[in-house]
Amino acid sequence: MRRVETGGPVYYEFEQWVNQPALTQGVFTRLGGVSEAPWSSLNVGALVGDDPAAVERNAALMFDALSLDAERACTVWQVHGTQVVLARERPIDRKWLAQADAIITDIIDLPLNLRFADCVPVLLYDPAHHVLGLAHAGWRGTVGGVVAATLDALREAFGTDPQDVQAGIGPSIGPAHYQVGEEVVEAVRGAFGNTDRLLHRAEDGSAYLDLWACNRLALERAGVRQIEVSGLCTVEHVAEFYSHRAEHGQTGRFGAVMALRGHV
Questions:
Q1: Domain contains 180
Q2: CB under 8 Å to 52, separation ≥6 — which residues?
Q3: Residue 194 above 80 pLDDT?
Q4: Which of 39, 84, 118, 220 has its CA 20 to 30 A from that of 151?
Q5: Is the pLDDT of residue 264 over 70?
Q6: What is the CATH classification number for the domain harbouring 105?
Q7: CB 130 within 8 A of CB 22
Q8: Burial of 60 from C-beta contacts in 10 A (0-12 / 13-18 / 19+)
Q9: What's the number of domains the chain is made of?
Q10: Containing domain of residue 52, as a range?
């Protein structure tokens, strides 16, 4: 990924889309906002105890950094599941579309955004049909199949062929730091058939899960071949990203944003 400094919010963009004028995308850091500690500073999570006015200002700064209209932005109430929502416009009576963990759209200049603090942002773009998807994949969503569900929704709504899809796996907790219990190990085994290369055991027998590898495998099994993995661990880069685990739950949420532009 390429790091972008704007004089305000700092964000990363996937290299594969840097020169793609039909798509705007960014995974934002925690830098360049107005929130005070422990949410400092670009917190866009409204349910973590931060001042709502600061959260609103941070969201405006985030969208402005990408030259997008914050008033049109669509999001969901994230619940660590696999529900996918088709976004056409922002609701008039609330700030979220539904309880879900993925959004798809074919509407030009309609920003999609989700929030993260260790879970995996999965960004999807189908250049053949000029449509996109954005998913939130924690361990529950990963083993539940949120990636496959998002690709299925793109196919049903727009005719997307996974072989055309370009995918980005964004910053999240890395495999060196994501210790999990045996119930998660069994869930991974049940979802993928085995745990080879998806987790490793420490000398004391404790298990560490690789969410990047899991989501890459989910994409590959669905037929996606163009995959960029950021490799940025939120625990190791806590100065730039919020990490629920590293900060013991006292932290904010960083945003991932995608929007379609007109064909060129």
A1: no
A2: 46
A3: yes
A4: 118
A5: no
A6: 3.60.140.10
A7: yes
A8: middle
A9: 1
A10: 2-173+226-260
